[in-house]
Each structure stands twice: as structure tokens, then as C-alpha cells.
Specification:
alpha/beta; D-Maltodextrin-Binding Protein, domain 2; 2 domains; six-stranded mixed beta sheet; 13 strands; Bact_solute-bd_prot1
Length: about 425
């Protein structure tokens, strides 16, 4: 891959941002096989609970626009990734549309011949990303739907007001804030440790990489395979995380959705999470939310949910019609108005966004660099190894860091090398 693949245009900041939802929550592993009847389209993705309801509102719009009967079956992330891979190997479509939140996986599926080209469904000028991100051999194999920003630590303004706390302006102030919060009665630990097979522990780890010198360039270089995971700056990021662990500043690891309940109860008052946070059910009053970036970081991670069409579907044209309606500005506006969404369609009107905190996020995103999600961009084997190593690191934070970095570097170079061949 060339550097142009990761050149994020200022359109990526969006002309306005709502509240995103990648919602990698656990879900019932419901089978959504490819359609066998004309006029029916099946979709599978990771949205469940409130996010599923929001997505189904978009599906209703697409059905009205296309006259198609569109059904949706959610899966958790692991089931989505493993089931589709197994199905594709036997030339079966898991669903007519498979939504993959990892461009690295999209490219690998395309290279293996498992996906239909869909570049005719979207114009780069109308979206916040470009074709190159999901292009293999000059064909575009995915279409962008909702995007996410991962800005920093969310907190409740009422908690900060009650305890006279302030957002930190530098890393020393950040450490002082953690010490203050740690001494407040009822607090389990200042920092929430959310988990979903290693995600989102990966997100906070990336934030510590980004806060290092030229961190945003380091992130891109790691994705391109032009930097090693044993780089001194990566080592420093892990050492800083280790120090926070040793101070007892990280909470018990819990499912990231359940961790929101502890966050809202002010038991884990700082939660490094994405722009979908205000939409989660445990957040009883989104207007009480605010966030701050990790001091030293001058970049935010952004990611996109990609619509793909397996090469084995019965009716490619119907799947394309459904996908085109859903990813349209009109389709994305529906979820944006409901909250819990960062649209990739630039023509979603600014009036669709309601929360002040999301407007603030929009403005801040316009002032910093935007970089791809490290493990989503690289895909496996790096992603699986990254998640596994972080779970082990959170379980045993006193272990030697260098062996972790060496193991991850081997996986990173293998993943980056695989992309170079695409």
C-alpha cells in the first residue's frame, strides 16, 4: 500500500458530526443466510439493542426507497469475522450485505475473491473517505456507512463539578487528576477498563502511542510497515500504561458495555471511548457528558463501518440497491437525527446534530490530525495478536514489556507485508 491509502482528506472531519456507533457489543449469533427469493436482502453487522433499533429505522427508509424486503441479523464481532470467513471458504454468502468495521479485513476478503466490486455505489466527493482505502487491483470492494471518532476520556460534568475537578492541560496534570479521583469515596479506579476480546483496550493503547513525539506519523508508519512495534516511542507508551497499572488506576476488566454502567455510576469516572458513547443505554443524560483528549496527543483515531457484498449472493443488483439507499446522505441522516451516529456522507445537514459535546468534538476534530485505527487497518494476524497481548498485559501488568513488543512486531510486519502484496 502506498502512503496515499492513508491520506485522510479534511473532508474526514465532516461538515458536521453526530454521535457514532460501532457498537461491538455481544449479540446473539443469529444466522442471516443469503436470500433465495427475489426482492429480499439480508444484512448482518454488529449493531445490537439501541443501535439495532436505530439501524432498523434506516432499513425502513431503504425498503421504502427500493421496494425491497430487507432483514437484519446481528452478530458479535468474533462471530461476524469467523463465520463470514468460514462461509466464504465454501463459497457461501453469510448475508447479502456484510458490514465490516475493519478495512484490513475488507482488502483481504477482496484479494481472496470473496467480494463484489461496489465502487459504482459511491462518489468520493460525497463521502468523508476515498476509494483507495478499500481498493484491490483497481476495484473498490466496500462502501462507507457510519464512521467513528475516538477522541479521549469521557467523564460526567456533574462529577467534575461536585469534586472541583478540571480537565488536565498536560500529562503531569493528568496524573494529578487520576490521583485526586482515586481518593474519592465510591471510586473503584479512575480509569475504566472496557473489554470486548481485547477491544477497546486497544483504543486507549493507541492513544498513548499517539501522545508520543510525532505520534500520528508513527501510527501511519506502523500501518504501512515502515516502523517497528519495538520503536522506543511504542515502548514508552507501554511503560506509561504500566505505570498507571502499578498505581492501581485501572479498573477491573469488564465487557465494554457493562463498563458503561460503572462509568455512569462514577465508579470508573474516566472512560476512553468513541463518539458513540452518548448513545449508549447506560448514559441516562447525554448532556452531562464531556471528554478530554489524552494530554500530548495531537491526533484522533477514526474508523468506518464498511458495507460489503459477498461474491456468492443470489441477487447482486438487489444487494447493491439496498446498500446504496442505506449509505446515502438521506439514509445516514435518519440515524444521525436519532443520535448515536457519525455520518460519512458529507451532505447530512448540520441541523441533524443536537448535543453540544458532539459539536465540540466536531470543532476539535477539525484542529487535529485524523489517523486510521491501527489494528482495524492492519487486520489479522496483527489485530488478533494485539488484542490477545493487551488482555494478557492488563491481567499481568508487571510483566516485561519488550517480549510483548517483539511478538507484536512480528505480527505487524506480517500483516503490513500482506497488504503490500494486495
Amino acid at each position: 500500500m502506498g502512503e496515499s491509502n492513508w491520506q485522510i482528506d479534511r473532508r474526514t472531519v465532516l461538515e458536521g458530526i453526530g454521535i457514532g456507533a460501532v457498537g461491538l457489543a455481544g449479540a446473539t449469533n443469529v444466522q442471516a443466510a443469503s436470500t433465495v427469493q427475489d426482492g429480499e436482502v439480508t444484512i448482518t453487522a454488529v449493531w445490537t439493542d439501541d443501535e439495532e433499533e436505530d439501524f432498523l429505522a434506516v432499513v425502513d427508509y431503504a425498503e421504502e426507497e427500493t421496494g425491497l424486503d430487507i432483514s437484519y441479523a446481528p452478530r458479535d464481532t468474533e462471530a461476524l469475522l469467523t463465520t463470514t470467513l468460514m462461509d466464504y471458504e465454501v463459497e457461501t454468502a453469510t448475508a447479502d450485505i456484510v458490514v465490516i468495521p475493519m478495512e484490513g479485513r475488507v482488502r483481504r476478503d477482496a484479494e481472496a475473491g470473496h467480494l463484489e466490486p461496489v465502487g459504482d455505489l459511491w462518489d468520493e466527493e460525497d463521502y468523508t473517505t476515498d476509494h483507495a482505502t478499500v481498493t484491490v487491483n483497481d476495484e473498490v470492494y466496500a462502501a462507507p456507512f457510519g464512521g467513528d471518532l475516538k477522541p479521549g476520556f469521557w467523564y460526567r460534568e456533574s462529577f467534575f463539578d461536585e469534586h472541583d475537578l478540571e480537565e488536565p492541560e498536560d500529562y503531569d496534570q493528568f496524573l494529578d487528576l487520576l490521583a485526586e479521583i482515586d481518593g474519592i469515596e465510591g471510586v473503584e479506579a479512575p480509569l475504566a477498563s472496557g473489554n470486548g476480546d481485547g477491544w477497546p483496550l486497544s483504543d486507549i493503547t493507541e492513544a498513548f502511542i499517539l501522545r508520543q513525539e510525532d505520534g500520528h506519523e508513527l501510527q501511519v508508519d506502523l500501518i504501512e510497515g515502515e516502523a517497528e512495534f519495538t520503536d522506543d516511542r511504542v515502548a514508552t507508551a507501554f511503560e506509561e500504561l504500566q505505570e498507571l497499572h502499578q498505581e492501581g488506576y485501572f479498573s477491573e476488566v469488564r465487557d465494554f458495555g457493562i463498563q458503561y454502567e460503572f462509568f455512569w455510576a462514577n465508579e470508573t469516572p474516566l472512560y476512553f471511548m468513541g463518539s458513540w458513547t452518548p448513545a449508549f443505554g447506560a448514559i441516562e443524560d447525554p448532556e452531562d457528558l464531556n471528554y478530554f483528549m489524552l494530554p500530548g496527543a495531537e491526533a484522533m483515531v477514526t474508523s468506518i463501518n464498511w458495507f460489503t457484498i459477498p461474491a456468492y449472493v443470489d441477487d447482486v443488483d438487489a444487494a447493491k440497491d439496498a446498500a446504496e439507499a442505506i449509505i446515502s446522505a438521506e439514509g445516514q441522516e435518519i440515524w444521525t437525527e436519532r443520535g448515536g451516529f457519525v455520518p460519512t456522507a458529507v451532505d447530512v445537514p448540520e441541523e441533524a446534530y443536537e448535543l453540544d459535546v458532539m459539536r465540540d468534538l466536531t470543532q476539535e476534530a477539525d484542529e487535529v490530525e485524523l489517523v486510521p485505527d491501527l489494528d482495524d487497518a492492519l487486520g489479522d494476524p496483527f489485530q488478533a495478536e494485539f488484542w490477545s497481548q493487551l488482555l494478557g498485559f492488563w491481567a499481568e501488568p508487571d510483566q516485561e514489556i519488550q517480549p510483548i513488543l517483539e511478538t507484536l512486531d512480528d505480527a505487524l510486519q506480517e500483516s503490513a507485508g500482506a497488504d503490500d502484496e494486495v
